[in-house]
Write a structure and sequence with these properties.
Radius of gyration: 18 Å
Strand order of the largest sheet: 5-2-1-6-7-8
Distance between the termini: 17 Å
Helix content: 25-40%
Strand content: 15-25%
Oligomer: single chain
Order of helices and strands: EHEEEHHHEHEHEHHE
Shape: globular
């Protein structure tokens, strides 16, 4: 079983789904500290003004403590933020897949669940289904793996892999420095790092802006091209 573990991100960039598509089981790692100004509750899409390039789309959060875990945080529903988000995508109406993508977007944000991690898990499942990704998605906080503490942050992956009986663990290339490959070898678990090399695609009137939310790729790319990007636009490096 090939395993990948990642924090839940809000409409993440295509590389996130490349990793998901390459794993047999995906663990939504929600029992970890929320990082402010990260990708858990925000991402980037094109700005209506091509000269400005991109803008953020954000899920507003209720008041939280500095060290709160993701699965303890709730969404602030005091404003109609879903309508505001939709408004930030209206300028994509000239994109070839606008209507289809907006339907997926509305399904992804349609859950009334106010718990951030559950909201994000729902959106990831909606997106995975639309992208034809059949990877099993489970949520760390809902599992009973008996993992109490780790010596360093990279050890979370090893302990989760052991507890779930994984034969191979895959992580994004950017986190390579956190891992100690010798620990995986001693445990008999393979370890690889995925380097995403996503080809540019047309954004109709914009200088290409890379690494935007999957929403942008869905707007502009036909299904065959996007599927090819997810399955082939990366290099897998063994540890």
């Amino acid at each position: 079983m090939k395993l990948a573990v990642m924090q839940p991100y809000f409409f993440p960039y295509p590389g996130y789904f490349q990793l998901m598509a390459h794993a047999d089981t995906w663990v939504v790692f929600d029992h970890c500290q929320f990082v402010n100004k990260g990708w858990v509750n925000r991402n980037r899409v094109l700005h209506p003004n091509p000269e400005k390039g991109w803008q953020y789309i954000t899920v507003p959060l209720s008041k939280r403590g500095r060290f709160d875990f993701i699965d303890d945080i709730e969404i602030d529903d005091s404003s109609d933020w879903r309508k505001s988000l939709t408004g930030k995508l209206v300028h994509y109406r000239r994109a070839p897949n606008f209507r289809k993508t907006m339907s997926v977007f509305e399904s992804a944000i349609g859950t009334p669940n106010a718990v951030l991690s559950r909201f994000l898990t729902h959106s990831l499942r909606v997106l995975a289904d639309h992208l034809g990704i059949n990877t099993k998605i489970v949520v760390y906080s809902e599992l009973d793996l008996g993992i109490d503490q780790v010596a360093h942050s990279g050890e979370w992956a090893l302990k989760i892999a052991k507890a779930m009986g994984a034969e191979h663990y895959i992580n994004p290339m950017g986190g390579q420095a956190l891992f100690e490959p010798a620990q995986f070898r001693e445990a008999g678990i393979g370890l690889s790092f995925m380097e995403s090399i996503i080809r540019p695609y047309g954004q109709n009137g914009y200088d290409y802006v890379p690494n935007l939310s999957i929403l942008d790729a869905l707007m502009w790319c036909d299904e065959e091209t996007l599927r090819d990007i997810l399955l082939n636009d990366f290099t897998l490096h063994p540890a």
